Amino acid sequence: MTGKTLMVVGTMSSAGKSLLVTGLCRIFSRLGLRVAPYKSQNMSNNAAVCADGSEIGRAQYTQALACGIEPTAEMNPILLKPEADSRSQVIVMGKHYANLSARNYYQKRDALWKIAAKALDDLREEYDLVIIEGAGSPVEMNLKHSDIVNMAVAKYAKAPVLLIGDIDRGGIFPQLLGTLWLLEPEEKELIKGLVINKFRGDITLFYDGVKMLEEKSGVPVVGVIPYLHHRVPEEDAVSIEAQNFVPSSDGEIDIVVIRLPRISNFDDFDPLNNETDVRVRYADSPNEIGNPSAIILPGTKSTMADLKFLQEGGLFNYIQKYKRNGGIVVGICGGYQMLGSLITDPDAVESAEREMEGLGFLSMKTVFQQEKATHQIQAIIKLDAGWLSKIEDPVISGYEIHMGVTELHGLKPWLSINLRSGESVSITDGAISEDGKVWGCYIHGLFQNGHFRRAWLKSLGWQPAVIPDGDRLFDSINELADEMEKSLDLDYLRYILDL
User: Fold this and answer.
1) Is position 25 annotated as part of the catalytic site?
2) What letters, b where the CB count within 10 A reaches 16 and e where it falls short, cover 86-95?
3) Among 25, 50, 67, 333, which one carries the catalytic annotation?
């Protein structure tokens, strides 16, 4: 029997589509249904790696976890990872497909649509319910002819659709009603419910607003979701763009992540931010940094372009001065490459630049290569020095997404990867300075390892009153589902799904 479908589209980017789908995935899976997420085309540098090495959007990976299933490439068959020079790396069914400009990408619309449609069909054959996520707005008129992610998918799947708007950003009436007005009649017929997201204050004061929306749209409002302070990974970097410099509280560990223009996998740092007495903030200029406990250079989709951003904006010199004054600097993936002396790109894999000097904190050189490493990994901490010696369990896990190879000169790697996509290997990774204040590696998800995370935080002076147990991410997903259950008309949702 072919599985049922439910689709969520939004009035704009960051209206709350990914979060609503995550909550719905958990809600329906707790009802005993076999549920899977799906997003045909995702544009995000926040990616994750499945067990077989396939690369998909972080949101769909998290949604699969909410369903209690293993993430697969079918859940996000097309992933666009923006690069420098107005082009994107195109990932199809979890593997690198091409690097294309927007114009060249649209020319491949028909071929990509067939792939996306087959992925959805395959999921529907395996699961009772597939919850589909749209992208941006479904009424971007100049893009509708090439749509393979919004109402084209809804029509193909004959899916009932929920339209979600963000009341916190204002204009909820034009958001929802304007979107409905711009839909074609056959598209509007598929819209079965409106959802208002990020409501603050007394809900009773908006009852008249709900009534007005229903009268003017002819579509029921199926939920008013409060502004949720959740710990579920965000899909887009919009969530970290509005943060400004605020002095830390006394006794608080203050960690600054450099907000690179092409930042990727910034959810790496959510586990740090979720600890008590630890704050993670993002900065993209020297005057926002202050004197933090540590600076982290995150992953990036374009290392050399973002290294140039550091140089031109004054952050390069600021970070070097911070390091000279005894500061602690960490690099993950592309940020790790920046810690070295030299980065080269002889085959123009990433940039027109052939060579660029790094920060020079670690004696190492990175060479970009055509082959891309995407693996889930298990590794062993092999150095017993400095704060690393305080880690009780040497085993850590995470994932790799990178195209560079880094050569160490006079440094010992501090990690040995022994499992890659389920296969036994012996590969070294990472470098650390003698005093332990500068270190990095290619492994994403590193701070998900609680014993590793807390050992490093303690080296910064962290003294928590309480260390919580359990899986914080899964707890957060359940909390999210609990809150959404209170806010959504689940009887109506079951009715439109014929459950």
Assistant:
1) no
2) ebbbbbbbbe
3) 333
